[in-house]
Amino acid sequence: MEQKKHFFAVDLGATSGRTIIGNITDGRFTLEEVTRFPNNLIEQGGHYYWDIYALYFEIIRGLKEVARRGLEISSIGIDTWGVDFVLIGDDGAILRNPRAYRDPVTFDAMDDYLHHVVTRKEVYDITGIQFLNFNSIFQLYAMRREGNSALSCAAKILFVPDALSWMLTGNEVCEYTIASTSQLLDPHTKQLDERLLQSLRLTRSKFGRMVQPGTVVGVLTDEVQRLTGLGPVPVVAVAGHDTGAAVAAVPAKDEQFAYLSSGTWSLMGIETKDAIISDLSYERNFTNEGGIEGTTRFLKNICGMWLYERCRSEWPEEVQKLSHPELQGQAMTAEPFRSLINPDDQMFAAPSSMIQAIRQYCRQTGQPEPETPAEICRCIFDSLALRYRQVFTWLQEFAPFRIETLHIIGGGSLNKYLNQFTANSTGATVLAGPQECTALGNIMLQAKAAGLVSDIWQMRRIIADTLDLVKYEPQDKALWDAAYEKYLEKVKK
Predict the structure, then answer these.
(1) What angle, 0 to 180 degrees and rounded to 10, lies between the N-to-C axes of helices 354-364 and 306-314?
(2) pLDDT at position 3, please?
């Protein structure tokens, strides 16, 4: 009997991380969490840092546990959040813990760079990436501007998943999907743009060789083998950007789909063969991020359940004790469409009180202020679903194909109320699942590197055949059409 091939996935988020074992047998997959750990943001000297050594330690701990269980793993893959990077010195040492994207030094760096170095339109025409103050290009500019000694001494700049792969193997790469989040990459050439690098006084040699998802970076160093008790296990550059891994796991049957990665943030988009860079995509602030097998993830970031999570943390203890289904069930008894907000308005980015920000928005737009937790929750869900419709409508205009289905993936795929609202609002058939899309995409790309699957469509068939997806069909069309007209009228642009 053929021995199972186990794949070790490291899935790191901005607040926590996990290590997971997965395998594929007889056309179906299984996943098992091995370890879970916090990813702590460190504040020191007016700056925010990630503890890269703590993350490395947790990977080693997970690998030790695998060795203790006697499992033979075929490979290792790492995915993380985007944009952040690690600086390496000439002597092969990490110069300093990496800055976190929340660092306040970037708050005015974007506007400064775009006014004095390269114009906004020029940067977008090169990269097709939406403007966020914490994109790598603006972090690097801010560090140059402050005379950052680590950047001045850096021999290599490695994005976080690539840095961790380097710590395991000693080999330096620049994985395509994570590099695309930097706003330094040209999606047409699929390389870092020389003009933008020069504007930061950087050269291409500062970065590792560009590799596509599914490339073997190298094998565990002798040191890591000794620490873990494992042999020369290959490390694969999976889709290093967690959203890239998640989209790779969308269980679509063909290309005619849109996806909604639903969680604290919502990311709605389509998968295309080429980047979509135009005056209209620039105006609407869509982004073109790297996908697997040469595809582009054309998408827009939407403020997702962040609104709900922040409000929940402010409500009295007796409300916080309610389960999500209980609280959301109460919201369904509240009057629909009474108060609507634009979830992406700047006033919801980081308010001292999310509840007061929502009430202020409604007051300023001549709407009733939601008072109870149920009313506030209903306001959030109605507004998110209508914002999804707006973005979905734009995607239909941009897409070179007819969008037949909307796949909702991630933690939000379990939210039955919002899923149904999304189907009602967009008029599309919604398929919800998988929840563990990022880890699944990570493992499937390792399986592809091992020759177990041939391409993205076989990966997606395996996922679809293993899971029971939940289908939501549109309802109450006239009601939601009227609500959308109110949304467009009331929301602040």
Answers:
(1) 110
(2) 58
Terminal-residue alpha carbon distance, the chain:
62
Measured in residues, the chain has a length of: 493
**Catalytic: 242?**
yes
Residue 228 has which token pair?
């873990």
The partner residues of 22 in beta bridges, in order of sequence, read 7, 31
**Which of 3-39 are b and which e, b meaning 16 or more Cβ less than 10 Å from the residue's Cβ?**
eebbbbbbbbebeebbbbbbbbeeeebebeebbebeb
Tokens, residue 100: 């976190």
Residue 245, token pair as written in the block: 């891994």
Q: Report the C-alpha gap between 244 and 261 in whole angstroms.
A: 10
> What DSSP letter does each residue of 78-134 carry, written as one string?
EEB-SS-EEEE-TTS-B-SPPBPTT-GGGTTHHHHHHHHTS-HHHHHHHH-PPP-TT
Query: Above 50 in pLDDT, residue 95?
Result: yes
State the Cα angle at 192 between 190 and 196, rounded to 5°: 135
Bridge partners (DSSP) of residue 196 are none
Contact in structure between 266 and 304 (CB atoms under 8 Å): yes
**DSSP summary character for residue 366:** T
Task: Tell me which residue has tokens 């002597």.
Answer: 91
* Residue of 363, 425, 416 lying closest to 389 (CA atoms): 425
Is residue 1's pLDDT more than 50? no
Q: Is 291 exposed, middle or buried (0-12, 13-18, 19+ CB in 10 A)?
A: buried
Is the separation of the CB atoms in 145 and 138 below 8 Å? no
- Among 11, 84, 103, 242, the active-site one is 242
The DSSP call for residue 369 is P
Residue type, 419: N
> If you compute the radius of gyration of the chain from its CA atoms, what whole number of angstroms results?
22
- Measured CA to CA, the distance from residue 166 to residue 419 in angstroms comes to 40
Are the CB atoms for 448 and 77 separated by under 8 Å? no
Kindly report which listed range (24-28, 223-227, 400-404) carries the lowest average pLDDT score.
24-28
What local confidence, expressed as pLDDT, does residue 492 receive? 60
492 or 374: which carries more pLDDT confidence? 374
C-alpha closest to that of 413 among 440, 391, 448, 445: 440
Query: Measuring CA to CA, which residue among 329, 418, 331 is closest to residue 372?
Result: 331
Q: What is the DSSP letter of 370?
A: P
What is the model's pLDDT at position 125? 98
User: How far, in Å, CA of 117 to CA of 96, rounded?
Assistant: 27
> What rounded mean pLDDT belongs to the chain?
95
* pLDDT one-digit tens code per residue, 405-429: 999 999 999 999 999 999 999 999 9
